C-alpha cells in the first residue's frame, strides 16, 4: 500500500487564529472562560480546551456576569453580542475574517434592496449569524430545485456559506439568471476551502481509497468527503485513528489522505502512524 497526502489540508488561517486566541485566553483567565458552542467543529480540539478548564455553554444564560466568553470562528449574531455586553462579559470574538466578509456583503445587499439567496446549510452557525444580521431577509438554498421555486425578482444578490462546495455553487448560477434581470454574485467561499477542495479532488482521481479526517459536524470536512464520493472513489470520513477498519483496504491500494480546515495535525498524524504501523 502507498499513502499519498493532500498538499492542502489541516488547520486553515481562520481556525489557527481562533484556536490561538482561545489558548491565550485560557492561560490568562483559567477557570473563568466560557465558549459559546464549539469554537470550531472538531471534538478532539474541544476536549483539549475542556481539559484546560474551558466550559462549553449553549446560551448566555449559563454564563456568570463579568466572565470571559469566546465566540465561534463561524461568527456570532449581533443580538447575542449585544446580550453579552449587557451582561458585562469580556467578549473574545474569534469570528474568521472570511465570515465577517459574508456578513458585510449580506448587509450591503439587504440595505440595497436585493432579494438575497444564500447557498448554505440552514442550521449552520455561520448562516444563523448572517440571517440574524439581515433580520431573516434571505432564502437559504442547498439545491437547484429550491432555486426553481423562486418567483421572478427585480434584482438578486447571491452569496455562499464560506465552506460550501465551489463546484456546486457555480452550477446554480444559470438557474438564478432565469429569475431576474440583475444578478450580483459574490463568491464568498473562502480561499482555504477552495484550495482544500481542489487538492482533494486531484488526489481522489489518483487513489483507490480516500480517508477524510475531521469532525462529523464539520461542514468543510463533510464537503471534502462528498467531493471524493462524487469522484467515485471509496471514501471514509473518520474523526480518529480508532475508526479505521482493516477490511477497507487491499494490499495494492493507494490511499489518499486529506483533512478538514478544523482538524489538527496531531489527529491526522495518529491516523497516518496507525496505517503505517498496522497495514504496511
Ligand atoms: S474554513 Fe475559511 S471561513 Fe472557515 S475558519 Fe477557515 S478560513 Fe475561515
Automatic annotation (TrEMBL):
Gene3D superfamilies hit by this protein: 3.40.50.11270, 4-hydroxy-3-methylbut-2-enyl diphosphate reductase, catalytic domain
Pathway it belongs to? Isoprenoid biosynthesis; isopentenyl diphosphate biosynthesis via DXP pathway; isopentenyl diphosphate from 1-deoxy-D-xylulose 5-phosphate: step 6/6; Isoprenoid biosynthesis; dimethylallyl diphosphate biosynthesis; dimethylallyl diphosphate from (2E)-4-hydroxy-3-methylbutenyl diphosphate: step 1/1
Binding residues for dimethylallyl diphosphate, per the UniProt record?
Answer: 74, 124, 218, 220, 262
Q: Which UniProt keywords apply?
A: 4Fe-4S, Iron, Iron-sulfur, Isoprene biosynthesis, Metal-binding, Oxidoreductase
Instruction: List the Pfam families hit by this protein, alphabetically.
Output: LYTB
Sites binding (2E)-4-hydroxy-3-methylbut-2-enyl diphosphate sit at 74, 124, 162, 218, 220, 262
| Catalytic-site annotation from UniProt | 126 (proton donor)
Explain how, and how many, cofactor molecules are bound.
Binds 1 [4Fe-4S] cluster per subunit.
Q: What class of enzyme is it?
A: oxidoreductase
Reactions catalysed according to its record? isopentenyl diphosphate + 2 oxidized [2Fe-2S]-[ferredoxin] + H2O = (2E)-4-hydroxy-3-methylbut-2-enyl diphosphate + 2 reduced [2Fe-2S]-[ferredoxin] + 2 H(+); dimethylallyl diphosphate + 2 oxidized [2Fe-2S]-[ferredoxin] + H2O = (2E)-4-hydroxy-3-methylbut-2-enyl diphosphate + 2 reduced [2Fe-2S]-[ferredoxin] + 2 H(+)
Q: Name one GO molecular function term.
A: 4-hydroxy-3-methylbut-2-enyl diphosphate reductase activity
Q: Which residues bind [4Fe-4S] cluster?
A: 12, 96, 190
Q: Which cofactor does it need?
A: [4Fe-4S] cluster
So what EC number does this one have?
1.17.7.4
The Gene Ontology biological process terms listed for this entry are: dimethylallyl diphosphate biosynthetic process; isopentenyl diphosphate biosynthetic process, methylerythritol 4-phosphate pathway; terpenoid biosynthetic process
Could you say which residues bind isopentenyl diphosphate here?
A: 74, 124, 218, 220, 262
Q: Which CDD domains match?
A: lytB_ispH
Q: What is stated as this protein's family in its record?
A: Belongs to the IspH family.
Question: What is the annotated role of this protein in its UniProt record?
Answer: Catalyzes the conversion of 1-hydroxy-2-methyl-2-(E)-butenyl 4-diphosphate (HMBPP) into a mixture of isopentenyl diphosphate (IPP) and dimethylallyl diphosphate (DMAPP). Acts in the terminal step of the DOXP/MEP pathway for isoprenoid precursor biosynthesis.
Give the HAMAP family listed for this entry: IspH
User: PANTHER family, per this entry?
Assistant: 4-HYDROXY-3-METHYLBUT-2-ENYL DIPHOSPHATE REDUCTASE
Write down what this protein is called: 4-hydroxy-3-methylbut-2-enyl diphosphate reductase
- Provenance organism: Candidatus Infernicultor aquiphilus
In the record, what lineage is assigned to the organism producing the protein? Answer: Bacteria, Pseudomonadati, Atribacterota, Candidatus Phoenicimicrobiia, Candidatus Pheonicimicrobiales
Amino acid at each position: 500500500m502507498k499513502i499519498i497526502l493532500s498538499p492542502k489540508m489541516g488547520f486553515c488561517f481562520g481556525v489557527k487564529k481562533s484556536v490561538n486566541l482561545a489558548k491565550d485566553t485560557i492561560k490568562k483567565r483559567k477557570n473563568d472562560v466560557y465558549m459559546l458552542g464549539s469554537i470550531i467543529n472538531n471534538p478532539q480540539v474541544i476536549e483539549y480546551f475542556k481539559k484546560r478548564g474551558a466550559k462549553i455553554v449553549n446560551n448566555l444564560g449559563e454564563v456568570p456576569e463579568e466572565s470571559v466568553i469566546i465566540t465561534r470562528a463561524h461568527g456570532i449574531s449581533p443580538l447575542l453580542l449585544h446580550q453579552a455586553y449587557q451582561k458585562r462579559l469580556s467578549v473574545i470574538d474569534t469570528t474568521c475574517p472570511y465570515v465577517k466578509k459574508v456578513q458585510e456583503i449580506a448587509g450591503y445587499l439587504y440595505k440595497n434592496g436585493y432579494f438575497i439567496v444564500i447557498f448554505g446549510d440552514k442550521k449552520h452557525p455561520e448562516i444563523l449569524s448572517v440571517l440574524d444580521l439581515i433580520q431573516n431577509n434571505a432564502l437559504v438554498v442547498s439545491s437547484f430545485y429550491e432555486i426553481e421555486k423562486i418567483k421572478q425578482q427585480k434584482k438578486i444578490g447571491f452569496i455562499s456559506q464560506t465552506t460550501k462546495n465551489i463546484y456546486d455553487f457555480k452550477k446554480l448560477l444559470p438557474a438564478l439568471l432565469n429569475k431576474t434581470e440583475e444578478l450580483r454574485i459574490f463568491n464568498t467561499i473562502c480561499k482555504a476551502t477552495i484550495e482544500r477542495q481542489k487538492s482533494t479532488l486531484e488526489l481522489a482521481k489518483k487513489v483507490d481509497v480516500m480517508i477524510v479526517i475531521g469532525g462529523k459536524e464539520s461542514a468543510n470536512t463533510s464537503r471534502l468527503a462528498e467531493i471524493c464520493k462524487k469522484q467515485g472513489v471509496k471514501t471514509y470520513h473518520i474523526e480518529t485513528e480508532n475508526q479505521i477498519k482493516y477490511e477497507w483496504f487491499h494490499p495494492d491500494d493507494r490511499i489518499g489522505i486529506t483533512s478538514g480546515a478544523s482538524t489538527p495535525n496531531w489527529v491526522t498524524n495518529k491516523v497516518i502512524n496507525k496505517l503505517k504501523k498496522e497495514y504496511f
